[in-house]
């Protein structure tokens, strides 16, 4: 797959990229026909720039020669079937995993060249919302949000209190500050974790499956919140998800990943108009298609024969 430079990405967004028609292999599709305006901030260098990324787990190829940009000020969604490597991508961006090949730059810094101390410093500028929320169960909502501030700043108690209350206000949980995590609903727990993720005013926030396990009301609140926080706080957001409709509703730009490669990218309207069978299977939730139901392995007959022989 040819590598792109930012001009190619902009070109794809503007709809003049090559359009893959009914591909039978996962090729990248940059599609056209969108009317959504491109934020002016996208003109500057991307906040995250990934080039030629390859990553394996044993013999399993997770990414192969992947190029991807996260534009400043935008909500970028990375979507794809379960097990396709979305969480792995977030771990690579935050330097928790090291690529086998390729480069990952965050805010102009090559994370492979950073030592541990530099990585920790960079990670403080990135808020992460985990699938599990990772709230500290022995601490109240207030103290969970205060935790990173106590760890990483010298704020006075009164200033710290103000910051925590403002973060809780932003997610609608100021009134629940004394509640313990075990007494929170799933949606409230996710919002408390979000308040903690923004406690240190990160430049970027990474959401790992933020809508999983949420009822429709909580999901609606989260969708609105992700967009509002991004725009009001001047954040850059990466949303990793397989919830197609919800994610597309707030994203400025989408990447669809399958089998280690980007199979489509563009604005939600551009990706929705894409007609390759790989993209359609994912976007329309089709059980049959190029992504197979069965995990790769020997045929059933072979396996049964082997078992019989054992
Ligand atoms: N620690 C690990 N050791 C070995 N393989 C792993 C490990 N973590 C993840 N994998 C494998 O890497 C692949 C990508 O996993 P990852 O969790 O990134 O996928 P995902 O797209 O986030 O999935 P989901 O949508 O289900 O959360 C999967 O096949 C998974 O089994």
Automatic annotation (TrEMBL):
Region (Disordered): 1-41
PROSITE patterns recorded: ABC_TRANSPORTER_1, ABC_TRANSPORTER_2
SUPFAM superfamilies reported in the protein's UniProt record: P-loop containing nucleoside triphosphate hydrolases (SSF52540)
Composition-biased stretches (Low complexity): 20-33
SMART domains given in the database record: AAA
Protein name as annotated: ATP-binding cassette domain-containing protein
InterPro entries from the UniProt entry: AAA+_ATPase, ABC_transporter-like_ATP-bd, ABC_transporter-like_CS, P-loop_NTPase
Top-rank taxon, per record: Bacteria
Origin organism lineage: Bacteria, Pseudomonadati, Pseudomonadota, Gammaproteobacteria, Chromatiales
Keywords: ATP-binding, Nucleotide-binding, Transport
Ranges of Basic and acidic residues composition bias in the record: 1-17
UniProt entry tagged with the keyword Nucleotide-binding: yes
One Pfam family cited in the UniProt record for this chain: ABC_tran
Domain ABC transporter, first and last residues per copy: 48-284
Transport found in the keyword field: yes
Residues spanning the signal sequence: none
Any GO MF annotation of the entry: ATP hydrolysis activity
């Amino acid at each position: 797959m040819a590598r792109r430079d930012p001009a190619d990405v902009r070109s794809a967004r503007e709809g003049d990229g090559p359009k893959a028609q009914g591909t039978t292999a996962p090729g990248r599709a940059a599609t056209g026909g969108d009317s959504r305006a491109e934020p002016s901030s996208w003109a500057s260098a991307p906040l995250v720039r990934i080039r030629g990324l390859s990553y394996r787990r044993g013999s399993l190829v997770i990414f192969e020669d992947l190029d991807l940009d996260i534009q400043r000020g935008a909500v970028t969604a990375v979507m794809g079937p379960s097990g396709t490597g979305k969480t792995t991508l977030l771990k690579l961006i935050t330097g928790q995993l090291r690529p086998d090949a390729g480069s990952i730059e965050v805010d102009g810094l090559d994370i492979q060249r950073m030592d541990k101390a530099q990585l920790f410093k960079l990670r403080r500028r990135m808020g992460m919302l985990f699938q599990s929320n990772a709230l500290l169960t022995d601490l109240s909502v207030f103290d969970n949000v205060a935790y990173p501030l106590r760890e990483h700043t010298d704020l006075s108690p009164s200033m710290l209190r103000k910051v925590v209350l403002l973060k809780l206000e932003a997610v609608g949980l100021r009134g629940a500050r004394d509640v313990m995590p075990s007494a929170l609903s799933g949606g409230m727990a996710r919002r408390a974790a979000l308040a903690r993720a923004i406690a240190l005013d990160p430049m970027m926030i990474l959401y790992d499956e933020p809508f999983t396990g949420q009822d429709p009301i909580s999901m609606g609140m989260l969708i609105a919140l992700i967009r509002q926080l991004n725009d009001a706080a001047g954040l850059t957001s990466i949303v990793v998800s397989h919830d197609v409709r919800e994610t597309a509703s707030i994203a400025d730009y989408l990447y669809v990943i399958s089998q280690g490669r980007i199979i489509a990218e563009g604005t939600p309207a551009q990706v929705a108009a894409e007609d390759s069978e790989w993209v359609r299977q994912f976007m329309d939730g089709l059980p049959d298609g190029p992504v197979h139901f069965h995990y790769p392995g020997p045929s059933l007959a072979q396996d049964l024969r082997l078992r019989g022989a054992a």
